[in-house]
Amino acid sequence: MNENIVGLIPAAGRGIRLGLPYPKELYPIIRDNKYKPISQYIVETFINAGIQHIVFVINDRKHQLIGYFGDGSRFGCNFSYVVQEYQNENISSKSPGLAHALNSANHLIKDQYVCFGMPDTIVKPATAIKELLNHLDTNPDLLLGLFPIKRPEKSAAVVTDSDQNVIKIIDKPKFTDIRFGWACMVWNPTFTNHLSHCVSEQNIRDFAEIMNQGIKRGFKVKGVPIKNGDYTDLGTYDDIIELEKDYRA
Fold first, then answer.
1. Helices within the chain (DSSP H only)
2. What angle do CA 38, 43, 45 make, to 5 degrees?
3. Alpha-carbon distance 194 to 60, whole Å?
4. Could you tell me if 119 and 65 are in contact, meaning their C-beta atoms sit under 8 angstroms apart?
5. Which backbone phi and psi does 225 adopt, to 5 degrees?
6. Which domain holds residue 199?
7. Dist. CA 107–CA 209, nearest whole Å
8. Which residues of 159-189 are buried (b: 16+ CB within 10 A; e: fewer)?
9. Of 171, 46, 201, 18, nearest to 98 (Cα)?
10. What angle do CA 193, 98, 48 make, to 5 degrees?
11. Where residue 169 sits, what CATH number does that domain have?
12. Hey, which bits of the chain come out as E strands?
């Protein structure tokens, strides 16, 4: 089965908020006098799940990212890179580049199951993706890895019923009493086709809206609470301070 699964990592953002002199995905995590960039965490989570091919979606300035990861042979995996064309559009969605970035890799992922994780988010435990893949025998169109929400304004809250069927995704609510949000996911070729149609034909750029449309169309979307799950998102300097406390020796 794992040979029909591809990992997908969108790394095409320009990191303007942080203003680092290198790609945000290479932000250093130092442990035991060893360097590991933040994006390597999701890479290792994919590899730990047995994924043999990982696709990075990058922009035309991410040469350092390619230089670090290379072809994947150092990691025992195959890496591919897709360049997302710059979208100079006035879009009002909260994550205008994400859906387009994911769809940029359509030619490499359209016939496969896709594991998706963010390069600036560390998910725990490292077996989270493996745990999601264990639920593929239920034949879902989309599986969402659910983690306790710590900061609603930075989370994608997930509403589920008593059987963990996903009813709705609420992206970055200011306040919420919803306990869980997604931080990684797995989907099948049917959802990839839906994503491509929404982006290419309907010009939808909000990824939460695309998922909600899939739910309305009757897709089987399940939430999987990850046992002892936690995640740290690196997007602002406040996040970096929090990360330093948690991950630096």
1. 39-48, 63-69, 98-104, 106-109, 128-133, 189-200, 207-216, 237-247
2. 105
3. 27
4. no
5. -65, 120
6. 2-247
7. 22
8. ebeeebebeebbbbeeeeebebbbbbbbbbe
9. 171
10. 80
11. 3.90.550.10
12. 5-11, 28-31, 34-37, 53-58, 78-83, 113-117, 121-124, 142-148, 156-160, 166-171, 180-187, 221-225, 230-233
Q: Is the dihedral of CA 41, 44, 46, 49 positive or negative?
A: negative
Exposure string of 207-240, with b = 16+ CB inside 10 Å and e = fewer, is bbbbbbbbbeeebbbbbbbbeebebbbbbeeebe
Overall domain count for the chain: 1
Per-residue tens of pLDDT for the chain, all 249 residues = 566 899 999 999 876 777 788 888 998 887 777 889 999 999 999 999 999 999 999 999 899 999 999 999 999 999 999 999 876 554 444 444 899 999 999 999 999 999 999 999 999 999 999 999 999 999 999 999 999 998 898 899 999 999 999 999 999 998 899 999 999 999 999 999 999 999 999 999 899 999 999 999 999 999 999 999 998 887 777 777 776 776 554
Tokens encoding 166 = 């996903």
Give me the amino acid identity at 131.
Answer: E
The token pair at 26 is 């290479």
φ/ψ (deg, to 5) at 159? -95, 125
